[in-house]
Specification:
Distance between the termini of chain A: 45 Å
Largest interface: A-B, 42 and 44 residues
Order of helices and strands of chain A: HHEEEHHEEHEEEEHEHEEHEEEH
Helix content of chain A: 25-40%
Shape of chain A: elongated
Number of domains of chain A: 2
CATH class of the largest domain in chain A: Alpha Beta
Number of helices of chain B: 7
Structural class of chain A: alpha+beta
Mean pLDDT of chain A: 95
Low-confidence stretches of chain A: none
Structural class of chain B: alpha/beta
CATH architecture of the largest domain in chain A: 3-Layer(aba) Sandwich
Oligomer: heterodimer
Shape of chain B: globular
Number of domains of chain B: 1
Low-confidence stretches of chain B: 29-43
Chain lengths: ~290, ~300
Amino acid sequence: MPEKEKILASFLLREALPPEISGWKTGREDQVFTRNDVFDYMNGGGEIYLAYDFQFVFVREYVRDEAPSIVIEIYQMSSSEDAFGVFTHDTDGDEVELGQGGIYGAGLLRFWKDKIFVRILADRETPEAKVVIFELGGKAAEAVSSEGGKPGLVKALPAEGLRPKSLGYFHTQISLNAHYYLANVNVLNLSPETQVVMARYEKEGSQARLLLVEYPTVERAVDAHGRFVEIVLLERFEEGREARPKKLEDGKYAGVVRKGRHLIIVIEADKKAVLDWITKTISKNLEGQKP
Amino acid sequence: MKKRKAPGTFTRRDFIRGAAVGTLGLALQSRVRPVPGGTREGVIPFAAENPQSIVVLIRNEKAIGAGGKVDAAVVQEMIDTAVKQFSGEADAAKAWAKYVNAGDTVGVKFTRCDWMRVHTDQAVIDAVVKRVGEAGVGKDKIFAQDGGLPVAKCTALINVPSVKVHTLTGIAVSMKNYINFAPAPSKYHAPSTNLGEIFLMPDVKGKTRLVVVDILRPYFGPGPQINPLHRWNYHGIMVSNDPVAVETVCLNICQAKRNVFKGEPWPITPPPDFIAAADKAYKLGTSDPAKIKLIKLGWDKDILV
């Protein structure tokens, strides 16, 4: 049996979705796209999913006369961490209680649970369509029996001052670029093996942006440390010597500290004090984690 | 000292300093040859050769009605008014005759991105095709398509893009609209710096007579998939012959909308460096606001530019 037919035949969440709901019926045949052909579904958009350990996406359309069509996409990731990561790509909308985290706005519902990320989108929002969207979301969430963990790296972040919905998790340069542009080269040596948590902080009226990167080896962390110091801070890098935080052209501070396999990068800090507080707090938190 | 920052490396700091644009141009300049103006007698020359590029932006509150329905008659009138203004002709037929004629085979290159749903609206495509036909171009010589447009067969192109902020290229308007003329379109995704070279491919070079932008319902979110919260009714049509100037104006509008949406600066990322490259290296038009004459017509509420 071809791979896609196998996926369709064995995908439990497909069985959990009704063939008809409030007059909406399944439209075109259910589809599955894997890493090999995700571009057939979203040419120019697949890169964002391929930047995570995405396995396949299941797509079903619901149609009803004189009503907006509704499409449900269920993304199967290989880990709950990556399901959470894809979910953090765009967090605009109102938070809703669904799965392990959900957001809704203007006819688009997204949530993640265990290794699954779900998007349900109506062509346009109507009161009826909204009800159906949430019913479908509820059925999909119920069909996932277990919950998965968020990335362990998230635990190193201080909860104090963390701006709501500012947390992002990813691995590679293409995702970094989608969240925040650092450079046109891969300054931080990001790869599928690296883990990155990005967040924004606000403390005592001062804001700052954090990039916390975990590398598979100390050597790679050291190399990325040097690249950041020399390419972004434009300072001489000497291993073992801490580069001081620097005030940049925008009047804000940037700095980097390495702790073993981790780089703690704080940028766009209004005041040096907030930068220092973030780096010290995270350094301490990382010390409490296993190396 | 600083050995890791190789030539051609640009950081956020360079963009803040405004140093990236000039440096980018210099870095790419050696790779490309200057573009001659126009392809044949009578064709409007590339805007890059003009001291100033003209962009006409027209907006009409009635272009979009209840439920987001686009009013085709209003759109036709908007396009006619903008093309008349751009051409300097008082009559729509005479205006269009400046750009296409019976001897042409015309490609009307629109944007159709099924999965993302930010298409060129059918009303815009229909309005352009109608006027191209009335200019004497036979139906069998008008190719209104996105993918598969036989560009080699065309003597003239009308570039009819939609407007969206894009995860991989920063923004996607008139420059990215030609991406599927390239044999390997993905080559121009992340980085997209060299998008301009598509305009210099033998089958494409010098054929763009007019750019008619559907900026009725642009998209300002990060994408790649649509979040309806990030789409707004702007009610606009834009006309020019300078794809770089058009891209520049649309970038400014989308950036302004993002800032309004978040209530703080929300920079478009990645920065669309292909715009500067299209200007400085490929000479396709201008990205310098001082050289863009923006003519604004019609409704001006929340115009953002």
